[in-house]
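Submission checklist for the structure archive. All mandatory fields must be present; incomplete records are returned to the submitter.

[x] Identifier: DUF2062 domain-containing protein
[x] Organism: Hyphomicrobium facile
[x] Residue count: 184
[x] Sequence attached
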Amino acid sequence: MNEKLTASGERDGSRLFNIAAVRSKIRFFWRRVLLLRATPHQVALGFAIGVFSAFTPFLGVQTILAFALAFVLRVSMPAALLGTFVGNPLSWPAIWSGSYFAGALLLGQDPAYAADHFTDTANALGATLSAPSPETLNTAVDYLSPIVEPMIVGGLLVGLIAAVFSYYPTRRAVRVFQRHRRLR
């Protein structure tokens, strides 16, 4: 392990995550994409669909959306699943802020609205979770609506851009990998 031990023999928690471990995980998932048995187009489009669905703000529905789109378009479902891993706790802040900002600009809204009303929104959500009732739920929906709409619109745009930029390198990598594997 790369972690340092303190004088008392405990691990030093100064690192948020281990860079080598993150690289290893990325290599592992990329290798899984390359090993899928399908045409380069099917793998790349499946992966791009997963990337697209990772940019939607609906946690828990992203995988279902990726599978549904992969099924309809008849592309690689495992690649779509692997593409959804682009959305993870490390990337969500960047994805959500970029989606919100792009959506707010597209809808002609002030992107600073969410930051200005963050405390009110958090309080409304906290009240709904601590004492669920129709009134607190309505209040939470009222506070969330101006934030969720730009996130959906922006997520579609940013997700589409990310999907396009993930399709071509993935297709090329799969094509090269499959060609090298056939030549062995």
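[x] Structure attached
Curator remark: The mean pLDDT is 85. Residues 134-183 form the longest helix (50 residues).
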